[in-house]
Amino acid sequence: MNDLLYNKKVMCPVCNREIEVTKVKTKGCKVKSRDTDMCVHYEDLNVLFYDVWVCENCGYAALQDKFEGIFTRDIAAIKSNISQNWVVRSFKGEREVDKAIEAFKLALLTLKVRNAKASEVAKVCLRIAWLYRDKNDIKRETEFLNFALNSYNEAYLKERFPLDKLDEFTCMYIIAELFRRVGKLEDAIQWFSRIVSSAEARRNPKLIDMARDQYQLAKDQLAEANA
């Protein structure tokens, strides 16, 4: 196994059985680049591949920082909708991109069974899009960018900020950039403009600079499309 990975024993909160999960020694991982929708690329291995833990016994899956935080009321729904049809298989050890996608889709299924908040669904859908980007599968990437966009829009309208660790203006930026990436340039320009013109958003100069850059890019793309 890669030296940046190690296994850890945890208790599954759904079936109450001990499982092993694989974690990343993030201090040893070097960031290579960041995409404009917040996707991080690393030098040695893709940290994102290991961000979902899956119980091999019952099929419960979640982002690792949410794995143990499930509500008691959701356990019965997971057992009846997922565990009854689950084929026992392990997700520990090194993962290729397809195994990572499978794990994230299981996490998405868990969220749907739980009727989770739109912001939680959006976060997972965006990361699935990034995994398809890693595969250079543009069609499936765009599909999940759209799923993420729709859920972030719903969260923006219906949920209170912060959304987990996401503040209002960063959420607006992600919505704007997702609009741009799926080709809805007029919507993207409108959302970027709202950020750039906000006095409150200027408390985050880095975000403002990013929004200005993407605002201009979206305008140039629209002009080119209309030429």
Number of helices: 7
Trace the largest sheet across and list its strands: 1-2
Taking all residues together, what is the mean pLDDT? 96
Tell me the major beta sheet.
Answer: 2 strands, antiparallel
Sketch the topology as an H/E string, one letter per element.
Answer: EEEEEEHHHHHHH
Percent of residues in helices? 40-55%
Classify the secondary structure makeup into a structural class: mainly alpha
Provide a descriptive summary of the structure in words:
The protein contains 7 helices and 6 strands, in the order E-E-E-E-E-E-H-H-H-H-H-H-H. The protein has helices at residues 72-81, 97-113, 118-134, 138-158, 168-181, 185-196, 205-226, and strands at residues 5-11, 18-24, 31-34, 40-42, 52-54, 61-63. It has a domain at 5-117. Helix 2 (97-113) packs antiparallel against helix 3 (118-134), helix 4 runs antiparallel to helix 5 (168-181) and helix 6 (185-196) runs antiparallel to helix 7. It is globular. It has 227 residues and is mostly helical.
Question: In brief, what are we looking at here?
Answer:
By secondary structure, the protein is mainly alpha-helical. The protein contains 7 helices and 6 strands; from the N terminus they run E-E-E-E-E-E-H-H-H-H-H-H-H.
List the helices and strands and how they pair.
Elements: E1 5-11, E2 18-24, E3 31-34, E4 40-42, E5 52-54, E6 61-63, H1 72-81, H2 97-113, H3 118-134, H4 138-158, H5 168-181, H6 185-196, H7 205-226
Antiparallel strand pairs: 1-2, 3-4, 5-6
